Amino acid sequence: MKLKFFLLVLLGVISTVQAQNSGTVSGKITEKSNSAPISYATVSIKDNGKVVSGVNTDDNGDFTFKNLALKSYTIEIQYIGFRKYIGSIILSENKKSATVNVSLEEEATQLKGVNIVAERSTIEQKIDRKVVNVGKDLTTAGASASDIMNNIPSVNVDQDGKLSLRGNDNVRVLIDGRPSNIDPAQLLKQIPSTSIKKIELITNPSAKYNPEGMSGIINIILHKNANVGFNGSYSGGITFGETAKYNQSLDLNYKTGKVNFFGNVGQNFGTYHNKGFINRFDEDISQKINVLNDNDSYLYKIGMDYLIDDHNTLSIYTNQNKSDGKGFVDTDIDYNNVTDISNIFQKSRYWGPDQVGTYNLAYKHIFKKEGHTLDFEANYSDNKKTQNASFDTKTTKIDNTSADLLYNDFLKGTRKLSTVNIDYVNPLNEKTTLEAGAEARITKTGNDYITGNPLMPIADRVSNYTYDTDIYSAYVTFGQKFKKFSYQLGARFESYKVAANLNHGKDKFDDDYITLYPSAYLTYNLNEKNTLQFSYSRRVDRPSLEQTKPIREFATPLVTSLGNPELRPQFTNSVEVNYTKTLEKGSFTAGVFVRSINDQISRVLYPDLADPSNEKQIMSYTNFDHNTSYGFEVSLNYKITKWWDIQPSIDFSSINQEGIVYKYVAGDKSIPEQKTVTVAAFNGRMNSNFKVNKRLSFLLFGFYRGAVDGLQNNSHEMYKMDIGSRYTLLNNKMNISVRFNDVFNTMKYAFDTMSPYPQAGQFTWESQTVYLGLTYNFGGAKIKNLQRKQREDNTNKGGGGMF
Predict the structure, then answer these.
(1) Mean pLDDT value of segment 10-30
(2) How far is CA 277 from CA 280, 395, 657, 730, 803, in A?
(3) What is the model's pTM?
């Protein structure tokens, strides 16, 4: 008992002595504009650049450091949306405590808790990506994310809404660093353009990213509603074309104590028109196609962030999407006295719901050392798609007799995706950073197909197709920064297994391999205004379910779209050199790239060998041989005067393609041949903004896409011009915009080909439209949200859709 008493006394004496020889730093952090306290701001105490201790401010903006050695320190205070504060503190025998009360000044892009979008967009070149900070000039482009994508350098959107980067559509699309498991073309139409904060173009991703996507990753970062109390934003728009289309979304956020609740709901509905023709010259056949898509989709998200303490955060959310689409396709084929048939007219109808549910759990641990973090994330997604189809075909012969063929199709698809990730970041010192992580991704898919087509063999009228993949990977990256030079080296090891099964074992396809994906980045700062970067990475494009399933995706009397279950993965080695120059009134960026591609996955059109008339064609996918691609891009962001700025950009890509196509030979129809071509693509854009005053501004946008001679067909040039205006009111909380797209109605997709038959065609859509949009923001002071890792999907997303 005496021994215990003695130990307690000794510990008390030691603690008293230590307290007498140590100091305390405390203070309060507030907003300069309204003196409101800032919760969860990061406060760091440093000694010669090394972090001694760090805390977050409490709900009242207060912080305290105890038991600090008596010496000189640097104090740093940071919070998202505010300028960093750096100050000095001296603790001594005469002054053992210090009080630091700081009022942080907001950045120019933030005001009173509401996300204020900059007037004009800007472009930054970071070590592994190009970042387009979206301004009001881009949000005026249209109602949705899809509308503004053609305004982004190196990005193109075709008439079906499909994205391509640097002339290649093998690109991953992420939202806030995550795959949505919704078709990107449909998803981008549901995201309001005003919700986009920035767009990241990761053209040569490092080993820390999944290696899918030959041309890289497009990551769309949305505005985060990070406000105390109850607040949010509303966005609504209407697009006037042949018919009116509507979209609206509501984002809500409620923050109390350590818990942050968030949610949003969006709706997109309207009828979209698309029409075109295809003329076949060897047999004088004319095919007219008219398409109406009546879409009604809903997207909502609800979740919660829980700040356990200053070092641990837990987050959960669910994302739900439901769409009910109706497609009406009328195909009118004139045979112009080629056969005993004079005309075929088919009415096709497609309808059915598509539902996607995603469930996410994330945990983040922040170590005491600044930048030292550990992230864990689990994600489960369940996709259910049902498609009913009816086909009513009337065939008229030259003698005016006719025959009708009426039948129904049924497609049911399921896709279950489970993912578990762990990521670790450790800044070993001020110049060196180590990152490592691992991921397991398991996908199970199933497709059932039933047709009542009496012309098909009975054995083929019912089909079942499964396509399952198991992917396990681990990565490590190591980087160092010096005064003018920095580098990052990385490697990703991956085990990939795929199993495809048609009709319960009738046809099987399996593949299993382990691959290494290295990456390297070198950056050299010539001076403060000039930066040069070199990068290398190895990538892969794996065929997706849509590209492999041998089940009808769509059909007309002359064209049927099917997948190819024997598609091989496509591997790419990519090298890039980028240059960035900061100007007094803007910035200039330029880059060149070279890619070596093996087994490129591409579209192919070939004769239907089962058709005795030799008139029907199959649209599918195949692997072309080794190809080489190169290109460059140049963009400028320059403010000519206080009221006028311009953002021109051009990009060029060329690819040497080699593969087997079907060549038309008169009398012998089509025969396969080995063909080699050089496919070149050129794009140019000019975005110009004119500011009348603080509230009113106008914009002028021009776009040009050059003709492309491809391996299978030749695409003609495309161009358009848009004009628009925007007006802000209510202290920048409300924004009204209007835009007249394709003023001269010049946008169309036209092509000609000799493979497999001499054909030419043209498709047009509602390119000439008027968009009217409104956004309203409301909110209070900022809070701290969980910063999540970036995730991506694992397959090439090309599908069989033609329209």
Answers:
(1) 64
(2) 10, 19, 28, 49, 12
(3) 0.71
